[in-house]
């Protein structure tokens, strides 16, 4: 059964948008159009990867996350700390100092998502040993990549490892620990994920593989960083709060997750456009000698998320240095907490032209017919990301052929030629700056001008 378009974290501020086409060209699922000088996000195509947030020079694309005022809704609150958070602060390589600082913001406790990450790594190793997975097996940790597969690569859904995200696993474990510690009811405890990416916020509101998220809210790393940057160096008493090992902490960087699986034939790919190339190769059976693929939408891994505060190269270096002081694994999660999905991802046929096969074939033929009239430059000036996308938009009724500036220019030439040949009188303001073909004189070549001057001199 087809799912309805889901809730999105990525949004557009139309007042700030200048219609510059940067986002149009970079969107991996062609989910953006430029109409009437403003960007428009096609919600059914968007996977909340945050690429448009990253490339927009006017900051018109934003991620909807929760504010700190939501902590007041609960009697006891826990910060679920993404491993990427460790790399955000300069001259701070003690993860206990970073975790302690979060208590200064109003959280009652902290829980490292790195603990969930190392548990998922262990579960992945078991899956790879079992031989039950289609090869190459694709990590399920990045929600943007999972959405991308559900939208654009449905044949690869069975390649995704059916494991919950570290965030969801950690949230369930954190709630259980908080209930035991406080005696409160589960619903009186608020769990807030400190996130480097918009896709996590979407996964909480409308999960692809969970029926109901264990997370109560998502706060961006940037928002936390702005509150903590000046305070973190003034903390007098550092509490020992860290329970995670280096295997989980290194999930924040590209390659960390893959290394934790210990699979011999593994690859790591980061950046959504690089991920697409790898997924295309998997579809074409070019990676049959690979057992495991770590695919992350953000450059450099989660440290490169659009909601992170620090440069991803710097953050990655800090986390790698910090991890050297940690044991490889610690802080296990009880086996009673389930590791696998609630449900499998569902194919979202956003590229389907029509439910009726005959009508869809007619529309496809019309697209090819229209496409022949376009230059194939994929310039984006029409407001669609490519000539083929414009042809499809025309067939769907979203656009018209004259949106292409090359088609428009040719139509204008034909019109003016018709006017000239039939001596049709047009208003002066239309003809201003335009001459009839018979009135035009070719500009003399430079050599002709020089010859004329030479004759005059002689």
Quick overview of this protein structure:
This protein is of the alpha/beta class. It has helices at residues 22-26, 51-55, 95-102, 113-130, 143-152, 166-182, 198-205, 221-228, 246-249, 256-261, 272-283, 312-323, 357-371, 387-396, 405-421, 428-431, 446-457; strands spanning 10-12, 32-35, 38-41, 61-63, 76-81, 109-112, 137-138, 189-195, 217-220, 266-270, 292-296.
Provide keyphrases for this structure.
458 residues; Alpha-Beta Plaits; 3-methyladenine DNA Glycosylase II, Chain A, domain 3; four-stranded parallel beta sheet; 17 helices; 4 iron, 4 sulfur cluster binding; 4Fe4S_Fe_S_CS; 4Fe-4S dicluster domain-containing protein; iron-sulfur
């Amino acid at each position: 059964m087809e799912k309805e378009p889901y809730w999105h974290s990525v949004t557009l501020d139309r007042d700030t948008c200048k219609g510059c086409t940067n986002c149009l060209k970079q969107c991996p699922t062609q989910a953006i159009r430029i109409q009437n000088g403003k960007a428009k996000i096609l919600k059914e195509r968007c996977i909340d990867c945050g690429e448009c947030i990253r490339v927009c020079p006017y900051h018109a694309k934003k991620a909807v996350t929760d504010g700190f005022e939501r902590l007041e809704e609960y009697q006891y609150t826990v910060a679920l700390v993404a491993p990427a958070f460790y790399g955000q602060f300069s001259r701070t390589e003690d993860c206990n100092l970073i975790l302690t600082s979060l208590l200064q913001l109003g959280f009652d406790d902290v829980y490292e998502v790195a603990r969930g990450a190392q548990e998922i790594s262990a579960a992945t190793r078991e899956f790879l040993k079992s031989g039950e997975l289609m090869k190459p097996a694709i990590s399920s940790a990045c929600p943007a990549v999972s959405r991308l597969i559900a939208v654009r690569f449905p044949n690869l859904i069975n390649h995704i490892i059916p494991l919950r995200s570290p965030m969801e696993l950690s949230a369930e474990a954190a709630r259980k620990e908080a209930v035991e510690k406080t005696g409160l009811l589960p619903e009186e405890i608020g769990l807030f994920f400190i996130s480097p990416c918009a896709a996590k916020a979407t996964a909480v509101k409308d999960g692809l593989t969970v029926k109901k998220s264990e997370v109560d809210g998502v706060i961006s790393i940037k928002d936390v960083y702005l509150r903590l940057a000046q305070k973190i160096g003034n903390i007098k008493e550092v509490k020992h709060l860290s329970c995670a090992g280096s295997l989980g902490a290194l999930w924040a960087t590209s390659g960390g997750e893959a290394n934790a699986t210990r699979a011999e034939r593994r690859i790591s790919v980061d950046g959504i456009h690089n991920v697409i190339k790898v997924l295309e190769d998997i579809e074409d059976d070019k990676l049959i000698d690979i057992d495991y693929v770590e695919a992350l939408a953000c450059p450099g891994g989660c440290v490169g998320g659009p909601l992170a505060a620090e440069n991803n190269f710097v953050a990655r270096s800090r986390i790698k240095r910090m991890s050297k002081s940690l044991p490889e694994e610690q802080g296990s999660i009880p086996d009673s907490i389930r590791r696998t999905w609630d449900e499998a991802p569902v194919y979202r046929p956003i590229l389907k032209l029509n439910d009726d096969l005959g009508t869809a074939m007619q529309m496809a033929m019309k697209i090819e017919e229209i496409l022949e009239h376009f230059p194939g430059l994929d310039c984006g000036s029409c407001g669609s990301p490519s000539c083929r996308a414009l042809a499809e938009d025309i067939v769907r009724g979203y656009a018209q052929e004259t949106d292409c500036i090359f088609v428009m220019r040719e139509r204008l030439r034909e019109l003016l030629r018709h006017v000239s040949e039939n001596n049709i009188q047009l208003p002066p303001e239309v003809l201003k700056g335009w001459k009839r073909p018979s009135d035009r004189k070719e500009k003399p070549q430079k050599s002709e001008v020089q010859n004329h001057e030479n004759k005059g001199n002689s």
